[in-house]
Structures are given as structure tokens and as C-alpha cells.
Design brief:
This protein is mainly alpha-helical and about 80 residues long. The protein has one domain. It has three helices and no strands. Helix 1 packs antiparallel against helix 2, helix 1 packs parallel to helix 3 and helix 2 runs antiparallel to helix 3. The radius of gyration is 13 Å and the shape is elongated.
Length: about 80
């Protein structure tokens, strides 16, 4: 795994932790913005990025955000 891969992989793990710690809709919305920014910046700064891997990471984060929103609705 290349050095830049480790960096965006570590960021992915951090964003997952942030999403899981959300307690309000505003926090979840902020996470959504973080994911969009992270995705765009990672693609810009790593032109040789594995697009499939990046897509899978983003899909996972999008799922976590949706799940967190549903969880908040039931509280």
C-alpha cells in the first residue's frame, strides 16, 4: 500500500468514528459535508488513487450516515 493510500485510509477510519459519535442531526449533516470534502480532496491530491477502493469507502460512509440518521429518528 502506497503512503498516500495509508493517509486516506486513516482518514476514512477517523470519519467513521466521527459519524458513530454523532448525537444530533446537525452533527450528522456536518459529517456528510466532511465526507464530500474528503472524497473530492482525496481524488484531487491523489491522481493515481484506486477509484474502486475510494468508491467503496465513500459508500460505506454514506451508509453509516444514513443509518445514523435513522437511529436518531427513533430516539
Amino acid at each position: 500500500m502506497a503512503q498516500h493510500s495509508k493517509h486516506y485510509s486513516n482518514t476514512h477510519k477517523w470519519v467513521k468514528k466521527v459519524i458513530n459519535s454523532c448525537k444530533t442531526y446537525k452533527q450528522v449533516n456536518t459529517c456528510y459535508n466532511i465526507v464530500r470534502f474528503w472524497k473530492d480532496q482525496t481524488k484531487l491530491n491523489n491522481p493515481k488513487i484506486n477509484r474502486t477502493e475510494m468508491s467503496m469507502m465513500c459508500s460505506e460512509l454514506d451508509y453509516l450516515i444514513e443509518y445514523k440518521l435513522k437511529t436518531l429518528k427513533t430516539l
